[in-house]
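Entry:
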Amino acid sequence: MSLSLARCVEAVARLLDACGPLEPVRLCMSEADVQAQVCASGPAASASMARLAAACGEAAGTPAQRDESVLTVDLEEELVLVAAVDTPVRGAVPGGRLTSTAAAAELLRTLVPWTAGLDQEQLPGAQLWVEDDGRGFTVRLLATAASGDDVDRVAAAAGAGLERIRTRRTDSGMDGQGRLPCGRTVHLGVVPLS
């Protein structure tokens, strides 16, 4: 079971709840760290980073280390968050956002049971990406296989708990998608290391 990844997803959901409204955020979560990219510029980016820093300081019980555009903090024991500003989402229309930080936190909470059921030994170093483009969310699980011979085994482990899974071989490994019982699509990617 990937309790570490599930713990990370749960911690980020709590953090987003504490932040209040942020500009769209891209998240990359693994067992030991979270990378967050605030997709905004100017005052909107500064305001989102300030909210994130304040919430991180409260969550960690210590002030977050922050410069103008990068934030690093220990969220929980052995869980590090690194947040930075990235360019706004391409095609985003000011005031036309359909997503919210609260919706992102709720999505993460729906992913916790699924991530808890993933086999950590079959998926070492797997990354869960949740991307907010302002119009909707994309969920992607990326994993690595030791060799090309292991791709099918790792893909099966990555698809555990998903329904209607479809995969296809690619030049770089395997891509696919499946659905969580709630209907949310999860994209899968497996890359062989050798």
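The longest strand covers residues 137-145.
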